[in-house]
Amino acid sequence: MDFSHDSLASIPTCYATVSIGTPHTPLDQKLRAIADAGFQGIELGFPDLLSFASTFHNAKVDAQDFDAICKACQQVKEMCQAAGLKIVMLQPFSNFEGWAPQSAEREDAFLRAKGWIKIMDAVGTDLLQVGSTDSPHATASFDVLAADLAELADLLASHGFRLAYENWCWATHAPDWKDVWAIVKKANRPNIGLCLDTFQTAGGEWADPTTTSGLIEKEGEGHEGLKNKFQRSLDELAKTIPREKVYILQISDAYKPRQPLDPKSGDSELRPRGRWSMNMRPVPFDGGYLPVVDVTQAVLKTGFRSWFSMEVFDGGPDGDDQEWYDLKGYTKKAMVSLKRLIKESVES
After folding, report:
1. In whole angstroms, what is the distance from residue 192 CA to residue 229 CA?
2. Is residue 188 within 8 Å of residue 198, measured between CB atoms?
């Protein structure tokens, strides 16, 4: 596998709009900060789009008022074109797959899917990110999960669109890359691929925010055993996933919690890794502790050379600093981090 600087120089770079400011931060300010830092594209976050639509209409827009949202999309599209930014992906589409047949939840999932497809068409993107469901009521059957995704892929295909399936490390049944890859293979559609993520991979298979060490602790395994097990998983990823089935690589690190998170979660609460994900994910090399370089190298070994996307949720080491005074400073720091990540992936 060619790991030369030349082979990596043409990798396109992307930044998620949800990873800077808040949904109330004007979208045009986010786009300027992303473009000024040298990024070539964005992941368009639905919360940002919904907020912009409310501003556009001068009235609160409901998340399922797809006609109103689509009317605002043309201006978003023009803003991105003016900034020189490609809208790489619409995200995050969640809790879609695995509902019971004929249930109200399944009906709602497909209603949302058809609405988001309208949005994709209106805003000018061809890629939809779907996160592996974290609903406790979803079926554990990979056959059913795959069938649902295949049905969604067919809806997308009629518009020339694709589906990027991502393992969320707190998901109910598909928290690891092996799980989502198995489901993608079962779905067996040419327009379904993977959204891989350094945090979701290392945060699920190597780290644990509920332990004092910040690592997965299993009796008799030890740190060296964990390290070797994780490396075997990465080696398998590199050898088994075809490069054309990786649509995008999302990049972030994670802070080790100062105090371990409560392993329990209430009925309405995210699982610990989900809570950790929400506001403790900085750019790499900025206080985090995950083996981000190792994950990146494994993905590059597949031959993947497409979008590297920064998707961070940085609330500081304690996860409670949500102030964003320097949008441009943060995106420029992210670009420096991204370049260093590529460099270290070559040299390590």
Report:
1. 28
2. no
What pTM does this model have? 0.96
Amino acid of residue 336: V
Contact 65, 101 (CB under 8 A): no
Indicate the residue type of 203.
G
307 within 8 A of 249, measured Cβ to Cβ: yes
In this structure, the strands spanning 13-16 and 307-310 are: parallel
Which residue do the tokens 């990798």 mark? Answer: 11
Q: Which residues contact 309 (CB under 8 A, 6 or more apart)?
A: 13, 14, 15, 16, 41, 43, 88, 89, 248, 249, 250, 251
d(CA 91, CA 99): 20
Q: Omega of the bond prior to 272 within 30 degrees of 0, cis?
A: no
What is the torsional sign of CA 68, 71, 73, 79?
negative
Q: Residues 225-267: pLDDT tens digits?
A: 999 999 999 999 999 999 999 999 999 999 999 999 998 876 5
Helices within the chain (DSSP H only): 5-8, 27-36, 46-57, 66-83, 104-123, 142-157, 177-187, 198-205, 222-240, 272-279, 292-301, 327-347
pLDDT tens per residue, range 95-135: 999 999 999 999 999 999 999 999 999 999 999 999 999 99
Structure tokens given for 120: 């994709």
What's the chain's Rg over C-alpha atoms? 19
Alpha-carbon gap, residue 162 to 154, rounded angstroms: 9
Distances (CA, A) of 38 to 34, 137, 278, 310: 7, 42, 25, 12
And the tokens for 255? 């802070």
How far apart are the C-alpha atoms of 270 and 134, rounded to whole Å? 9
Helix (H) or strand (E) holding 307: strand 307-310
3-state secondary structure of 80: helix
What is the phi/psi pair of residue 97, to 5°? -95, 155
Residue 261 is given by DSSP the state: P
